[in-house]
Specification:
By secondary structure, this protein is an alpha+beta fold. It is built from four helices and eight strands, in the order ββββααββββαα.
Length: 258
């Protein structure tokens, strides 16, 4: 049982605003029940406040630095498209910084909420819960990663993991990874379309000059393809890692976590 080491045992609890979030025993997380099923906050997701705020500050810092360089390049440029390209990078960095800051602020406000005082929600969609015992041998067992274990009820695997002593619902990671895979597919398709348009524009451009609009399309398409190509396999790996094991703990060469 994990509940004995915490003042309030981990579980799904109603917050002050009525939404049901996962309390990991120390702090409210971005995991919530949407229509009774585990999901993640649509904007902040599973972000914690400190990392999100730190990333936001770093991105905004780089955006400010790149804005100074880009402004100098834009002022000296004779081509409008060159000026647009010079200011494109700081704009993208600033947008990423604002997104991280917003997610961090949402997480910060959530994490400052007091510990749960109302009874936990224990519906069939979230069970079996960590610590729930059905048969002999119930315990936390590593399933391949030394720092991550999963609860075995004695009969079935619970959709929860234990990382560095903190339990969390793995169902949310499956949902988040599935969303990321869909987004990556959209990015790859959009990148391929932009790349084709850029190549066509470059090929149709006059032979005595370089088609700056065509190069912009190619650049944007390449960036989208790279991001999608990185996010896609990473998300597939995360979804597989969060999925329930196919075998009981007796078939894993790892002892229970004590």
């Amino acid at each position: 049982m994990t509940g004995g080491v915490f003042a309030v045992r981990p579980g799904w609890y109603p917050m002050a605003d009525g939404s049901v979030h996962w309390w990991d025993g120390r702090v409210w997380t971005g995991h919530l029940l949407r229509d009774g099923r585990p999901s993640a906050e649509r904007f902040a997701g599973t972000q914690s406040a400190k990392p999100a705020l730190s990333f936001g500050a770093v991105f905004l810092g780089f955006a400010a630095l790149q804005a100074v360089i880009g402004t100098m390049q834009a002022m000296s440029a004779t081509d409008l498209w060159v000026a647009v390209i010079s200011l494109l990078a700081p704009a993208c960095l600033a947008l990423a910084g604002l997104l991280f800051l917003t997610a961090g602020i949402i997480a910060f406000r959530r994490e400052r909420q007091p510990a749960p005082t109302r009874p936990a929600v224990e519906t069939s969609e979230v069970r079996p819960l960590p610590g729930e015992v059905v048969g002999p041998g119930a315990d936390w067992y590593p399933t391949g990663r030394a720092e991550t274990s999963r609860w075995w009820t004695g009969a079935t695997w619970a959709p929860y993991t234990l990382t560095r002593g903190v339990p969390s619902p793995s169902q949310v990671m499956v949902v988040a990874a599935t969303r990321a895979i869909r987004a990556a597919i959209v990015l790859v398709i959009a990148g391929a379309v932009c790349l084709v348009i850029g190549i066509v524009v470059v090929m149709l451009a006059p032979t005595d000059g370089v088609s700056t609009p065509g190069l912009i399309w190619v650049l944007v398409g390449a960036m989208l393809l790279i991001v999608g190509a990185v996010v896609w396999p990473t998300s597939v790996f995360q979804r597989r890692r969060a999925a329930l094991p196919d075998f009981p703990p007796e078939q894993f060469p790892y002892p229970a976590v004590r």
